[in-house]
Every structure is written in structure tokens, then in C-alpha cells.
Amino acid sequence: MTKKLWRQEMIAQLKQQDPLLKMQTDQQLLEQLMTLKDYKEAKTIATYLSFDFEYNTSLVIDQAYKDGKRVLVPKIMSKGEMIFVPYDENDLSLSSFGVREPNSHQAILKNEIDLIHVPGLIFNHKGYRIGYGGGFYDRYLKDYEGATVATIYQYQLREFDPESHDIAIREVLIDETNDKRLSSY
Fold first, then answer.
1. Looking at residue 178, what DSSP letter applies?
2. Which cofactor names does the annotation list (predicted)?
3. Residue 24 CA to its chain's centroid (Å)
4. CA atoms of 175 and 178, how far apart (whole Å)
5. pLDDT 10s digit of each residue in the chain, 185 long?
6. DSSP conformational letter for 141
7. Which of 62, 112, 53 has the alpha carbon at shortest distance from 83?
8. Residue 32 Rama label (left phi>0; alpha psi -120 to 50; beta)
9. Are 3 and 124 in contact (CB under 8 A)?
10. Other CB atoms within 10 Å distance of the CB of residue 116
11. In angstroms, rounded to a whole number, what is the distance separating the alpha carbons of residues 28 and 159?
């Protein structure tokens, strides 16, 4: 199956989730995230602004603020470049991709980010991911030296062979219905 078909299939599956079960699972995943040493020690966390059918990242944002952390979100620039900027819920617009995005261009340096919470549609047991196809995260993470984590539903775990440019996520947290936790290294 091609990546394009896998993406379409997974998006359809994500959109069919039971809203109550999704809400409970998202909370369980947040609780797992909060137990990680990388989360506890992080002063600056980058996350993404999720679609309704993805893991609800507003939970991470709210918790990180409660825990006194600086929160960053991605901004897509020209020529396929992505930066992370400080999150400001009052300074967002809808992007051409259909997700909320900050208006700010105030890029924070990679070495100032302790933990990046990475999105994705499909993950394998080694932490490699299939995202939406833009390659923004793989390019960004290529020379990023901090910690990375993803929060996924158990059915997002599939086996596939990564491509040469793919970057593995260090820790993939999976909902506890299967009580799994992956670490790619």
C-alpha cells in the first residue's frame, strides 16, 4: 500500500473515533506524557495545533502552562521551512492546510527547545512515522538534539520500512488499551 493510501485510510479511521472514548484516551496519553523524565525536566516544549480527529494537543498546552513551561507551536514558512514560535491563543489564523497556525514569525532556536511533541498518522515499532506528506518535521528534526515524543492511538501503530530521510521519534506513547510504550533508542 502506498503512503498516500495509508494516510487516507488512517485519517478516515481517526475521524470515526467515538468522541467520548477519544477524550478519555487523550487524557490517558497526557498522563503518560507527564510521567516522562524528558517532560518533567523540560523548560520549553514544542507541540502542534491538532485537527479535531488527532490527539487533542490543547491538553498538552494547558498542562505545560500549569507546570510553568514555555510552549511553542509550529509555523510553516516559505520553501518548506518550519519554525517554532511562542504559543499565543489570541494570535492564530487558519492556514492553507486547514489547521490553526500562529501569525508570529518570532522563531525560537532549536537548542532552546527541550522536548518536541511530534504529530503523525502512522508509527512503526522503531518510532518512525508517516505524517501528512510535507516532510516538515523530518527536515526540522534532522539536526535537532533534544527529546522527541509522540502520543498515538494503538491502531496508528503499523509496520512499514522508513525511507532514508525519515527521522525516528525517541518515545512513542500509545494509549493504554494495549498498555504499550515504545522507545526508538
1. T
2. Mg(2+)
3. 18
4. 7
5. 688 899 999 999 999 999 999 999 999 999 999 999 999 999 999 999 999 999 999 999 999 999 999 999 999 987 778 999 999 999 999 887 788 899 999 999 999 999 999 999 999 999 999 998 888 999 999 999 999 999 999 999 999 999 888 999 999 999 876 444 444 43
6. H
7. 112
8. alpha
9. no
10. 27
11. 24
137 is in an annotated binding site: yes
Do 72 and 109 meet the contact criterion of CB atoms below 8 Å apart? no
Cell of 61: 498546552
**Annotated binding residue 127:** no
Cα-flanking dihedrals φ and ψ of residue 42, to 5°? -70, 135
Sign of CA dihedral 127, 60, 55, 101: negative
Determine if residue 98 is labeled as part of a ligand binding site. no
Q: Half-sphere exposure of residue 88, counting CA atoms within 13 Å on the CB side?
A: 11
- How far apart are alpha carbons 115 and 141 in whole angstroms? 11
Residue 185 among known ligand-binding residues = no
d(CA 96, CA 78): 12
Confirm or deny that 132 is annotated as ligand binding. yes
Q: Is 135 annotated as ligand-binding?
A: yes
150 near 134, Cβ under 8 Å? no
Q: Determine how many CB atoms are found less than 10 A away from the CB of residue 57.
A: 20
129 labelled ligand-binding: yes
